[in-house]
Amino acid sequence: MVKIKINGEEKLYEEGIKYEIIAKEYQHLYKEPIALVIVDGKIRELMKRVTRDCELSFVTYGNAIGHKTYVRSAIMLLMKAIKDVAGLEVAASTKVEFCIGAGYYCRLKGENKLDDKQIVRVKERMQELVEADLPITKKAYPAEEAVALFKKYGMTDKVKLFRYRRSSNINVYCLSDYYDYYYGYMLPSTGYVQYFDLLSYEDGMILLLPEKDAPDKLPMFEPRKKLFQTLMQTDEWGMQVGIDTVGDLNDKICQGNIAEMILVQEALQERRIGEIARDIAKREGVKFVMIAGPSSSGKTTFSHRLSIQLRTYGLQPHPIGLDNYYVNHDQTPLDEDGNPDYECIEALDVEQFNKDMCDLLAGKTVELPTFNFKTGKREYNGKMTTLEADDILVIEGIHGLNPKMSYSLPAESKYKIYISALTCLNIDEHNRIPTTDSRLLRRMVRDARTRGTCAQKTIEMWPSVRRGEEKYIFPFQEQADAMFNSALIYELAVLKQYAEPLLFGIEKGEPEYFEAKRLLKFLEYFLGVSSEKVPTNSLCREFVGGNCFEI
Fold it and tell me: pLDDT digit string (tens) for 247-273?
């Protein structure tokens, strides 16, 4: 027998009992299904067995780690169903591309395609597998055996990925006769994946899954056409430089082609910025370029580079940060926890902003404010501004696309741009890299360098930042006149050497430890690249330093 402490109470269990059985005993105490357990400070999958006395707690679908576990398990369920319906070759060539809201866009590479009838059959097969409640098992294979297994099943992306892993063993998951690798934890059986839908979409399909805050229901799928087109364009850029997965990127680094590839990627971004500038210049009456995007999307550097491009069309751009219109901090609204809510639109003096912009549009000279973040107050230091015939204001801030922010300005005077780091680089075909991971690492590196903020604090704040984005930014992205993807296909290899020391500084036992450990494991997939080859006007420089715009 083993002694297990749960919720402050000790109980005896037979040695070798699965954590899943214990979780079912305590499930009635939790609103959301239990996905994982924490055993003496370490996360364990429910399929694992108890081997010694320990203290145990539970992780549900409502937790970010638990939700990711559900998503990974649903993707494996999808791949197994595709194999059963269309064959192993088709499953191996299916790529999980990116997220569109709560939907995961999946597409077959090469000549293989699934028609609408086949997609319906795949969905039906997924449901059959769920009802069968088949076990998902995990086995650690010696690296050579795992690579041989993946080579046998035609998973060349995984063969390439593990060429660069130093681990002597590789964890391989098995669902009946289907084997695959997944970065992160998995659920113990198919019966746990109760909520999903599979929809035909564009050239592929959408795997629709519950969101973290509502794990027991499916949201409506919102197509978001502009976002989809931007993501597909990024996918095409990746194909142009020959990089689809982390293994491809590592190959380029080893071949000594990284410097050229960096320049090609930067040139692709510059071309897109030039296209946006040309579109602005062609439109009559545009006086306000409104730029919005989530945290660490590179809004500041983008606004500078866009300004340079606008000058080539004879325009005179002037940057304005919406942060300068913060209300004094003692007047900032409070959130539901009683803390200052700097993300909400009420934290800005919307009326003063509209008055100033309307006065400028009317030809008046206006003294623009500057916000002093040290004192928490807005200041006026004689920054007088008048809009001449060729002048244009480049305004950036998280509420730039919200109609309430510029309600009094004529629609024809505004050009709206949505920017985010929408990475389409995958670890391998079935393991996508969340956009939020790239932005979190960007912010961590930048804030440690410019604000002295430790990685632990950045991770602690991240959920609040994400809630603000979901509420105040993402709902307006489809209203943009243009979208810009600031993700650089090489940047995680550069950020790696800056982020790892910061993450190692988070001690075991701290609430942020699990996230730090996950990110460290994630960065292990990448070979490091020096920032020396990164141009000084690159968006990457906003985070690692050395930016020619003095950000």
Answer: 999 999 999 989 999 999 999 999 999
- Show the CA angle centred on residue 306, arms to residues 301 and 311, nearest 5°: 130
Domains and CATH numbers, the chain: 2-60 (3.10.20.30), 66-221 (3.30.980.10), 228-544 (3.40.50.300)
Instruction: Classify residue 196 by its DSSP letter.
Output: -
Contacts of 124 (CB under 8 A, 6+ apart): none
Q: Which long-range contacts (CB under 8 A, 24 or more apart) does 341-345 make?
A: 343/398, 343/464, 343/465, 343/467, 343/468, 343/471, 343/472, 344/468, 344/471, 344/472, 345/399, 345/402, 345/404, 345/405, 345/472
* CB within 8 Å of 105: residues ≥ 6 apart: 96, 97, 98, 99, 201, 202, 204, 205, 206, 228, 231
470: left (phi over 0), alpha (psi -120 to 50) or beta: alpha
Nearest-angstrom CA–CA distance, 207 and 428: 18
Output the six-digit token pair for 332.
Answer: 């900032």
C-alpha–C-alpha distance, residues 307 and 153, integer Å: 50
Q: Tokens in use for 437?
A: 């991971």
DSSP 8-state assignment for residue 188? S
Backbone torsions φ then ψ of 318, nearest 5 degrees: -130, 120
267-to-271, 489, 532, 538 alpha-carbon distances in Å? 6, 12, 17, 10
Q: Where are the beta strands (DSSP E) in 47-166?
A: 54-60, 94-100, 103-108, 136-142
Local structure of 430: helix, strand or coil: coil
- The predicted-structure confidence for 64-105, as pLDDT tens digits, reads as follows 999 999 999 999 999 999 999 999 999 999 999 999 989 999
Could you tell me which of 327, 326, 307, 291 has the C-alpha nearest to residue 402? 291
Chain centroid offset of residue 33 CA: 24
Rg (CA), the chain: 25
Helix-helix angle 246-254:258-282, to 10 degrees: 120
What is the distance, to the nearest Å, from the Cα of residue 93 to the centroid of all Cα atoms in its chain? 23
Backbone torsions φ then ψ of 69, nearest 5 degrees: -65, -40
pTM of the model: 0.91
